TrEMBL record:
Belongs to the 'GDSL' lipolytic enzyme family. Keywords: Hydrolase, Lipid degradation, Lipid metabolism, Signal. It comes from Handroanthus impetiginosus. SUPFAM superfamilies: SGNH hydrolase. This is Triacylglycerol lipase. The keyword Hydrolase applies. The keyword Chloroplast does not apply. It comes from the Eukaryota.
Length: 369
């Protein structure tokens, strides 16, 4: 009787431990724990859970090239850059949205945390005011959600193990575009330098908070040339009659990159042990646009899915028209890249040269110097 009891109890303990650890280890011994924060470029369904928000993509034709043609909430015909980055690090796709995990039973919720979490919410920005009228999850609130995840790790494995685990985890952040869009939508009169420096000091505060929570390895994706997306080309076309990139927003995006590069250089001396990789999505995307045929795109101006001129007069929804070949388009809808463009961006972040990602590329983040 005594042995019969002792066997099941140690067996039970093993089961508990493996329930905690297998999800993380089973994929691949070298698979890091991944956390993703940001906006629609990285959202994998967060906003589906926001009843009050209209910023959603959980309907066709979104997801037409996703496994089983599912509309998951991604603003893409298939996977987005968060998924492709996660895949490059050995995961199946991006970890699930925090808000979808919250719908699980508490013990399932906790078990899933070991596979990583995606907090990104479409429409959000660095500033709490960006998207506040859209009821999305601002970056500061995403970080609050990460704090509850950390508390749950601590409750499960203790604070030392949590600290060790988070220090090895990868934190990907893709944000800033919506703040710049907001500046222009608001017809703000704040001088450009002042606005950019507000964004940068806010970014600095967020990174410092994440560092305080134990994050050490950051993969940061800067703002792409948002002036070249179909919606902004349409704005330019209305002004000049030509569907060129809208230079003002691009100018802000480029200045933002330089300032962010500068900030990250500085921050390494203030936050010991921090390691980062900064992706220059501005240059990456401009080079693709300038050499479209080399990257096998035939259309880098119009959306593949949408309504009207440049398919940028209405969103990608069920009544929108689709381009004939989705692999030939840079843009999926009026704001977002196609699956192919997202794959290309992730590949460049992961293994690109210092022209595109510096001081190291994302593939080097998991390793110690
Ligand atoms: C959102 O709506 C769903 C379904 O209508 C409901 O179950 C859920 O409680 C709502 N969530 C919030 C936060 O209001
Ligand atoms: C683990 O992932 C790495 C990087 O993706 C890969 O090189 C390696 O072959 C994988 N190992 C196994 C056992 O799957
Ligand atoms: C835009 O205007 C709204 C409403 O006045 C304000 O709440 C928000 O902070 C502004 N956003 C930016 C990015 O300036
Ligand atoms: C764990 O997560 C749940 C759900 O978000 C939260 O309510 C709780 O406060 C968290 N913290 C701990 C210590 O369990
Ligand atoms: C946690 O780490 C600290 C400092 O390294 C150590 O003093 C302490 O004993 C550890 N606690 C546990 C529970 O291992
Ligand atoms: C939210 O604010 C932005 C910037 O002022 C504006 O362009 C947008 O139309 C507003 N959206 C809603 C749903 O009120
Ligand atoms: C926009 O920028 C491009 C590249 O810097 C330049 O060639 C073009 O003349 C600019 N267009 C306008 C309308 O300022
Ligand atoms: C970085 O440090 C330099 C030199 O100390 C300083 O001039 C600059 O303002 C700093 N930039 C940021 C963004 O913190
Ligand atoms: C593409 O075009 C840019 C100019 O924007 C050029 O500097 C770059 O080297 C070109 N080549 C590739 C492979 O992107
Ligand atoms: C799709 O978008 C168009 C253009 O904005 C709109 O007129 C139409 O009502 C939308 N259709 C659906 C099913 O939401
Ligand atoms: C980037 O990544 C690749 C593959 O992971 C690596 O071999 C290469 O040295 C890195 N390139 C640079 C310029 O750091």
């Amino acid at each position: 009787m005594a042995t019969a009891l002792s066997v099941p109890s140690s067996f039970f303990l093993l089961v508990i431990l493996s329930n905690f650890f297998i999800p993380h280890l089973a994929t691949n011994d070298t698979t890091p724990l991944v956390f993703i924060l940001g906006d629609s470029t990285a959202d994998v369904g967060t906003n589906n859970h926001l009843n009050q928000s209209d910023i959603k993509a959980n309907f066709p034709h979104n997801g037409i090239d996703f496994p089983h043609s599912r509309s998951t909430g991604r603003f893409s015909n298939g996977f987005n850059s968060a998924d492709y980055l996660a895949k490059l690090f050995g995961l199946r796709r991006s970890p699930p949205p925090f808000l979808s995990l919250l719908t699980l039973e508490p013990h399932h919720f906790r078990k899933h945390l070991f596979k990583g979490v995606n907090f990104a919410s479409a429409g959000s920005g660095l500033l709490d005011t960006t998207g506040s009228n859209l009821t999305v999850v601002a970056l500061s609130e995403q970080i609050t959600q990460l704090t509850t995840v950390r508390d749950n790790f601590t409750a499960m494995i203790g604070s030392n193990a949590t600290e060790a685990m988070l220090s090895e985890a990868l934190f990907f952040i893709s944000i800033g575009s919506n703040d710049i869009f907001g500046y222009f939508a608001n017809k703000s009169t704040m001088p450009k330098e002042k606005f950019i420096s507000t964004l940068i000091s806010t970014y600095s505060a967020h990174i410092t908070t994440l560092y305080g929570l134990g994050a050490r390895k950051f993969g940061i994706i800067s703002v792409p040339p948002i002036g070249c997306c179909p919606s902004q080309r349409l704005v330019q076309k209305i002004i000049t009659g030509k569907d060129d990139c809208f230079n003002s927003t691009n100018d802000f995006a480029q200045t933002f990159y330089s300032a962010l590069d500068n900030l990250l250089h500085n921050i390494t001396s203030q936050l010991p042990g921090i390691k980062y990789s900064l992706g220059n999505s501005f240059k990456m995307t401009m080079d693709v646009i300038a050499n479209a045929t080399l990257y096998e795109f035939t259309n880098v101006k119009a959306a593949c899915c949408g309504h009207g001129d440049l398919k940028a007069q209405g969103p990608c929804n069920q009544t929108a028209s689709l381009c004939p070949d989705r692999r030939e388009y840079l843009f999926w809808d009026l704001f977002h890249p196609t699956k192919k463009a997202s794959d290309l961006a992730a590949e460049t972040l992961y293994s690109g040269t210092t022209d595109y990602v510096s001081p190291i590329n994302f593939s080097q983040l998991p390793y110690d110097n």
